[in-house]
């Protein structure tokens, strides 16, 4: 099953929408609409009678903005659960409990899976953090397969000279993700680039009161 995002261009970039039983990675710089996209997908999923879980692991979730998007798409808020985690180790404990929490859900949006990981890098050895993050994402993949659940992972970006933008913890996230989409802001326009599979084109979109919409 493919869950529509409400934006034709974004659906095209996602190869038809968010597929259940798989993991989709969406990453991009600030102001590209990552959180807006996650909220919108959760709202639309609930409007279709399916349960959705939103994990706020970066403090980016705005109840006011979500209410705005939810009203625009006719969301059923009793089918939406929002959880917030404060640090990377709380995130780890939450993921460990996912197998007993996700029965009956059709969508899990994780916003973002790398913010708290990145915050820990200054005080922890990268090897330890990478091992824990890898285990977390592997667990989410397992739940996606077991429950026919669509998992949407959001990530921040990092960059190095000559390499361009890439997702934080890219080796882990790219390995486990079935579809990878990069969101980009270029000269005031926003584009989605499908990197896995490589579709070789970009998809324009814009952000409105309703959320992510097509460019008219």
Write the layout of secondary structure elements.
Layout: E1 2-3, H1 8-13, E2 18-19, E3 22-28, H2 34-47, E4 51-56, H3 63-73, E5 80-84, H4 88-96, E6 105-111, H5 115-120, H6 126-147, E7 150-155, E8 157-160, E9 164-167, H7 170-176, E10 179-186, E11 189-196, E12 198-208, E13 211-214
Parallel strand pairs: 3-7, 3-10, 4-5, 4-6, 6-7
Antiparallel strand pairs: 1-2, 8-9, 10-11, 11-12, 12-13
Helix pairs in contact: 2-3
Write a concise synopsis of the structure shown:
The protein has 216 residues and is of the alpha/beta class.
Structural class: alpha/beta
- The name of the CATH superfamily reads P-loop containing nucleotide triphosphate hydrolases
Radius of gyration: 16 Å
For the report, how would you describe the main beta sheet? 9 strands, mixed
Distance between the termini: 28 Å
Mean pLDDT: 95
Level-1 CATH class name? Alpha Beta
**Helix count, DSSP H or I runs of 4 or more residues:** 7
Contiguous runs where pLDDT drops below 50 for at least 5 residues? none
CATH topology: Rossmann fold
Named CATH architecture: 3-Layer(aba) Sandwich
Assembly category: single chain
What percentage of amino acids are in beta strands?
A: 25-35%
* Quantity of strands, as a count: 13
Q: How would you describe the shape?
A: globular
Number of separate domains: 1
Major beta sheet, strand line-up: 5-4-6-7-3-10-11-12-13
Helical percentage: 25-40%
Compressed to H and E, one letter per element, the order equals EHEEHEHEHEHHEEEHEEEE
């Amino acid at each position: 099953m493919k869950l529509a995002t409400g934006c034709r261009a974004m659906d095209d970039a996602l190869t038809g929408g968010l597929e259940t039983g798989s993991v989709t990675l969406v990453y991009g710089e600030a102001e590209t609409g990552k959180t807006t996209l996650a909220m919108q997908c959760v709202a639309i999923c609930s409007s279709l009678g399916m349960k959705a879980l939103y994990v706020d692991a970066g403090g980016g979730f705005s109840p006011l903005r979500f209410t705005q998007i939810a009203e625009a798409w006719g969301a059923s808020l009793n089918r939406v659960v929002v959880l917030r985690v404060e640090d990377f180790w709380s995130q780890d404990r939450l993921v460990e409990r996912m197998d007993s929490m996700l029965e009956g859900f059709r969508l899990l949006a994780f916003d973002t899976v790398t913010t708290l990981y990145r915050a820990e890098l200054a005080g922890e050895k990268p090897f330890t953090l990478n091992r824990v993050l890898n285990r977390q994402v592997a667990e989410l993949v397992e739940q996606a397969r077991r429950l026919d659940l669509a998992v949407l992972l959001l990530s921040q970006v990092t960059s190095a000279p000559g390499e361009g933008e890439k997702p934080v913890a890219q080796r882990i996230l790219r390995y486990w993700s079935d579809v990878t989409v990069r969101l980009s802001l270029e000269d005031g326009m926003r584009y989605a680039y499908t990197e896995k599979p490589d579709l070789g084109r970009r998809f324009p979109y814009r952000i409105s009161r309703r959320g992510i919409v097509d460019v008219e």
